[in-house]
Please model this.
Amino acid sequence: MAHVKAIKTIGNGGGQAAAGVRDVLGGATGFDVTTKADYTAINAAIGRLVASVPEETTMDVYNAFNKVVPKTVPEFMMSRVEAKDAKAAYEAFLEFKDVVKAHPITPAAVPAAASVPEAKLSLIAGAAGKLSAASYPFIKDVDWTSEIFTKPLPGASARDVLKAVERTISMGVSMDGKLLKEAGEAHHAAIGSINAKGVTSAVDYENVNAALGKLIASVPKEQVVDVFKAWGKLAGPTIPSYQFSGVNAGDAVAAYSAFWEFKDVVAR
Model:
């Protein structure tokens, strides 16, 4: 919720335009920062989150990202800002890190049961099996190693993308805690079985579809539609057409048809 609120106040921060954010998120002009109050709230929220997990888990994340970020990146980012401001921020961050480390938080237990009745969850899992079987050939057709998946959406500004992100996070806030945890675990397993072509195993693909279907069934329909429309607006007709041109048309149509059937089961 802290991130949702902060996104809504971007442009009211009164600070210097964030050139680095403009470059990374698509070159929007006049892109400003959030308010200091909302920025503070986000830092506090993240600090508490990190304090609620074991230190080794935090270090695993830090080391994983550190390994894939070229050593030239920090120097480049430093060159884009006032050096004294960057150094002051870094020193303050290290102090904050020490406070977080010194005050671990015991997280609240995840509910033993989901808010969605078990009978409905079983129906969604069954439908996910049908969807996965029908769409897995299409999944294998896609070139997941293409650089298109690492590029910003064409023609979309940072503000446009953030609006869609805000709606997505809002939906996440409404999701069932137990199902959210299970979906995270399903994705974790699926990433572990990804092959050289970027495709996960059929079993893990089905588990991810089932987990997502259950998650979406736990939030109000209007939130799901808001997220769909927000991202659909950014994609426009160009991206789907381009993606369709690079795969087997029969596999794509079969996957699309199966997805709509799955959507109907989740909606019910």
Summary: Confidence is low (pLDDT under 50) at residues 14-30. The chain has two domains: 2-102, 118-267. The CA atoms of residues 140 and 199 lie 6 Å apart.
